[in-house]
Every structure is written in C-alpha cells, then in structure tokens.
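hey
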C-alpha cells in the first residue's frame, strides 16, 4: 500500500511548507484550509503533521461511488462522479479531506509526494508497504 508517512513525528517545526505545497498543487494558492495535509497540536503540545492514512472510510461513506482504491492502495476521487456533498469530509478521522465552496468536488491526499519534497526537515515520505 502506498501512503504518505511521517518518519519523525517529533521533528516537525510547523513551518507549513508541506501545507503550502499541497494547497498550491491542488488550488494554486496558499491556503491552509485547502491542504490535504494539516499541522495540528499533538497531545504533548508539539506540532504534528496529520496525513491521510488511506483507511477507506471516505470510500465507504460515498453514496456516489466516487472514491475507489487504486492498485497501489491509494483512495482516489473520481471528479466526474463526485457531487461535492462533503459527507466523506465529515467522516475522515484525520481531518485531511478538503471541500471548499468554490470547488464542485472534494480533494484528498493521493500520496503524490509534493509535500514531502517541500518539507525542510525531510520527515515526510511516500512509502509502499
């Protein structure tokens, strides 16, 4: 299964380089609310990257059948089938699915690695498990 992982959870500086890279890739603007990776405050008060764990809850919730798992294990959104209802966003346990009012469809992490390349600490990595 291919997915984005955090290799060193304690090394995040909350610089938002990963967040910026993701929102720029999907929406061509830096807006943390439009990123499929989020930096949250961990239980210890330290910054923690939240990434898609490819759990499939979004796919099981989608009544349109717009979210399916590809051969590498990544859940993908078929933009032609997505009606933008946002139900998948509500069930995402990591809170990293994005639905913005100006877009007719939802977006999610596709394990592309853009955020990993942008991370100055080198703590994000796309792995195949």
């Amino acid at each position: 299964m291919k997915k984005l992982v955090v290799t060193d959870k304690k090394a995040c500086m909350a610089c938002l380089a990963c967040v910026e890279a993701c929102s720029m890739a999907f929406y061509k603007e830096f807006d943390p609310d439009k990123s499929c990776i989020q930096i949250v405050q961990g239980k210890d008060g330290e910054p923690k990257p939240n990434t898609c764990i490819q759990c499939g809850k979004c796919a099981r919730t989608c009544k349109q059948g717009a979210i399916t798992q590809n051969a590498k294990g990544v859940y993908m959104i078929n933009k032609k089938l997505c009606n933008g209802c946002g139900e998948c966003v509500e069930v995402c346990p990591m809170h990293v699915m994005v639905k913005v009012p100006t877009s007719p469809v939802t977006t999610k992490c596709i394990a592309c690695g853009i955020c990993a390349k942008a991370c100055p600490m080198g703590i994000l990595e796309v792995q195949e498990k």
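The two ends are 5 Å apart (CA to CA). The chain is about 20% helix and 20% strand.
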